[in-house]
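Justification of computing resources. Each target in the renewal requires a structure prediction run like the one illustrated here; the chain below, 812 residues long, is used simply to show the kind of job we budget for.
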Amino acid sequence: MRHEFRRLALWLRGHVIIRDIVLAVFLSFASQGASSSITFNPGLLFDQPSWALTTWTVLLAVPLAIRRSAPRVGALAFAAVAALQLLFGPAVIVSDFWAPLMVYSVIAYGDPRNTKAFMLLSCGLGLASTAVMGWTMTVGPAWPAMHGTRSVFRKSLAFAPYADCDVVYAGGGLTGDCADTLGQYLLMTFTAIGVCLLSAFILAFWQRARLAAIRMMRERNAAIVAREGEERAIAATAERARIARDMHDVVAHTLSIIIVQSDGGRYAGAHDPKVARDTMETIRRESERALHDMHRLLGVLGGSQQAGYAQIGALVEQARTAAPDTAIAREVSGTPAADRLTAEAGSTVYHVVQEALTNVRKYAGSPAHVRIREQWSSRQLRIRIDDDGRGSASESDGHRPGYGLLGMRERVESVGGTLSSGPRANGGFSVDAVVPLTDATDAGETVANTTEEPSSPRFPELAVPPSFSGLWSRIRRKSTSRTGDADGRPSNWVEKASRWTQRHYLLADVSCTFLLIIMFGLSPWSIFSFDGAAESKALHLLMLMETLPLCVRRRFPESCALVVACLSVLQLLVFSGIDVSNIVVALCALYAAVLYGRDHAWRWTGATALAASLLFGCSAALIQAGYATILDFMMGRRTGSAMRMGPETITLMGVAYGTVAFLACAAVMALARWTRSRDSNMLVLQAREEALLAKESRQRVLAANLERERIGAHMQSEVAGTLNGVIEQVRLGLRMLDDAEARGVEPTAEQIAEAFRAIGNRGRAALKRMRELLGVLRETGSSDDGGKTEHPALHPAAPLSEQLRGLRQGLE
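Resulting structure tokens:
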């Protein structure tokens, strides 16, 4: 039912002409009914018959039907009919009061470039209407007077000032009391028309600014919905790129260590079985660790082991152990501020150093010297890795250059940094990365939000009274977006005020609430009490308490409605009298709760409204029966005399009062649901935008998870097969050493060298195979290689097994 209601509201929003036609028909019948008792209709030239009112009413109603679908045409048509009416029709009819509505419509819904022209046109017609109405109502129509007769209207005037006006058409001129009367009439008419036009101008400019903001929010929401499929595709391709990048950092780093260790073991362990065994054990541990990290990478959570800045020292030591003939020096300048690196930035710095050291082992040759320099400043960390090797010139493992550097660049740019790399002028290679630091307060919040909960219990902190700014930040909601007209024209003060109240709706609600309190406090009809002044003061205090929650009616709508409902029930139970302000406040709170609250808030608010309406009906009936309050009735205390009505009549009156109250509540709830369904409220649209963004975020995560699941099983089997092959080759080497030790002999240098050679060949084959997998992933993943490759099409990729089969066929 809710969706049907919303579809109907959106359909009517797209067919405003239907609503305008209904309004025009309703106003026509209302105007005709209001003017049916008028017996004379003077015009500038003639006395108008009664049927002329109907004719001019219909003619003026036609432009109302297109006041929003074609505001310019409707306003011009209305102005033309109004001008003809002033000349040939009645001087004033009830339908003339539609003019401010047409002025409002053409300014609020029409082209802003025509605003000044229509404002001048409306002012001109206003002046003409003032002159025609003043002249006709004092002097009378011209045609009967020119023929020596008096019009019906003139015959009905018996006041002395109008008698002097009989001689105006006879050449007597405007003299005496006639001139004074005409001047007073013109002044009053001019003031009334001016106030109406000014009010229409202000309301129209206010509404135009509001509609511009609503139009912008609708476009933003529509854009979010439209890009949903594209965002899912981007998330899937980004996940493929992430898997490729992390696989390169995890598996390729380990395989490069294995290759270096196996090449070194061929020489260092050829004549020392203990060194050979230790080297093989290291290779096996690294392979198993890479296999474990790969399973973590492609697991359900999709997270690889994220090392940070603090682990760079261990990474350097690992590199020194893996390549003893490579000299690695680390220098730090400035004041290190690792706490100002976010978790992602710290992981990025770690992987930059990791990839640079991996490239040194693979390409620099032996011996090589590496220098890692960290430069800390107040805003950024610059880390530079230089070596004096041969550079990236080897492609013996089938690696297509650029994957590692591409992954580094993607990581650094994702945290807002920059990276440059390339061969040095005097030989070697250089990697230079700059990573921005966060502010101290932001870093503290990041650490507080990302640190895991400690295992030991934490004692509660002492309560500290919040400051005014802290309290304000708690109740203050995110302001609505700043909006302006699409054509960039300057705004007037009314439009600026409208946008200000939209952005600062809490302050606007506070101001309106205090104005409401002042109005109720000054109005003598706000409370009707049966007792003395003491109870009246208490009722005024209750009125204040009921009205104050409206200050947060849009910030905390349901809480506001709950407080107002409780106080309303208290007033109906305890206090004697009818609190008119309570009725107004309760309806306002009910409207806000249904419009701005949760989607199902109408359920509990509707039940509460029904209960309050029953109490209202009971209170009205008991007052007629002589009981001041419901509490007096429960205590059996009658404080007044019952009216001369039977119990059935009193009960019927109570039912009628309760029914009317509930119908008013139902109408308010229906209006709120209608406004909510039409997408014509800024806060509702903003809440919908936040919901759409949250849904979009969930869809991206879901798309990434589906993509990882789609490629994860096959990718794990491929990578696990290559790593297990290396591990199995290491086990064969260790078995050879174990067999020789069991026989009490030492293996020959050739046997040890052959074992390491087999391990190295298996590691190179595994690295080559992994590069092929990375190539497949990169072809359909998002990347940034400086614009050298085109972005992939955003559609689901083919199964990974089919991509690999095509790659094999291409290689063969």
